[in-house]
Amino acid sequence: MAKKIDFKKSVYELVQEYPELTGILSKLGFTEITKKAMLNSVGRVMTIPKGAKMKNISMMDVVMALMTNGFEIEGEMPQLKMPWEEEKKESPKGMTDERTEMLKDYLRRLGKGEDLEAVRADFVKNFRDVEASEIMKAEQDLLKEGTPLQEVQKLCDVHSALFHGATREEKIANAEKAVQESLADKKIEGNKKEIAGALTAISGHPLNLFEKENEALETLFGKVREAIAGRDVEKELLSELREISVHYAKKGDLLYPHLKTQYDVSGPSDVMWTVDDEIRDEISALARAEEQDDDWYDRLSKVLDRAEEMIYKEKNILFPICAVNFSQDDWYAVYRDSKDYAEVLGISFPRWEDAEKALAAKTESAAAKMADGEVVMPGGHMTVPQLTALLNTIPMEISFIDADNINRFFNEGPKVFKRAGMAIDREVFSCHPPKIEPMVRNILESFRDGSKDSVPVWMEKNGRTMLVNYMAVRDRDHHYLGAVELVQDMEFAKEHFAGLS
């Protein structure tokens, strides 16, 4: 079973769940974690991102160390900075300290019983928004200065009331209204829902498949709610519920990025993608939980509410937006790339005859163009079919991104990490959910400025050990040409060395 790290949990909670974290975090610089008194007091209110910020430890180092030790990160990814980036740029320490002191002052005033609205008025004058980590930093500073832990905990609800509506998390939630309003701003002839409905009625069309999957999911939600009422949710039912992740993965790979990059419709990518991740992560966490208490059932009921809301938003917002923007060739590409994904709740992949004919004609045309050409290199020369077959034979998933961060090549074949053909000639960042994008940008920037040549990441994926190696691609004069991502299943190595022992 994969080990999951939720950065919203306290250090104390995570260490109780995974005792080996004590050694991992201690080596990174979280030295107090080895002291039981500190772990049992400050550790109960301290999170890993919060502690890293206080101790000046790079969250990139933290994430890499956790992934190297077989952990997966779930929930919202914190802001990441590469260690060499932190060395190059002086952080605005004075400004950060000033913000923290102001926040602490607001919290002290509340602690003394000052009127909430009076404190809020001062807060609004000085802050457009505030990161949740900044609030935690201010609270932690109060603890270090001697404010009793019980008093800080007692005031948490008052603190939340003060900052209500100003945190980044709340702004993401409120942004869903903007997604709906984006429909009204788009002046397109005809009824959007009617256009989407017409496409949905075509057997084999991607919207037809999405609609069938949603119908199956709604039926499943009904079964889960019956099980919740009877306090008898079995593991098999939760396993079925987790298949929603495939449905969400297809949206994240094939719909959101294309809307944003090709048609400048960013609402779904900025908002819905984040909500999809949160729903998927919560269902995953519930499935791993060992105890099904009242809180567990309450969380399951709430995540079903969010999943049902997402089905409504897909039908009434996302699919109509796609319907009035995507061209026929776009839909053919979505259809082609959808074949790489597993079935959702047994919904088979229907054949779309028009797409099959168009794609076959396109393939024949491309084959005719490259049949006579050769690629000449310093080490020899090969025909394009030979080179293509060679790259597809290498037992790795290969992705090449050029110096402008544009996807230029994916080799073919089944992949653990899906690579949609539609992503070719698009910025690599558009292919990643919002919480992962900062890490991708930092890795590529480190290759570009020469501070790094490779970033290897070991991880567990679907119960198998994988090595993901990001490498800078440079010419003989060391000019940066781009980056390659190599994904290799390493189970064979484990089996080989296990046989030798």
Given as residue ranges, the uncertain stretches (5+ residues, pLDDT < 50) are 81-95, 153-159, 166-176, 185-190
Helix percent band? 55-70%
Describe the largest sheet: 5 strands, antiparallel
Q: Which structural class matches the secondary elements?
A: alpha+beta
| Total DSSP E strands | 9
The Rg value, from CA coordinates, equals 25 Å
**Average pLDDT, all residues:** 78
Give the SSE layout.
Layout: E1 3-6, H1 11-17, H2 21-28, H3 36-40, H4 48-55, H5 59-68, E2 71-74, H6 83-88, H7 93-111, H8 116-126, H9 132-144, H10 149-154, H11 156-163, H12 168-174, H13 176-185, H14 192-200, H15 206-229, H16 235-241, H17 244-263, H18 267-288, H19 294-325, H20 328-338, H21 353-370, E3 374-377, E4 380-383, H22 384-393, E5 397-402, E6 407-410, H23 437-448, E7 454-461, E8 464-474, E9 480-489, H24 491-500
Parallel strand pairs: 1-2
Antiparallel strand pairs: 3-4, 5-6, 5-9, 7-8, 8-9
Helix pairs in contact: 7-8, 7-9, 8-11, 13-18, 14-19, 15-16, 15-19, 17-18, 18-19, 20-21
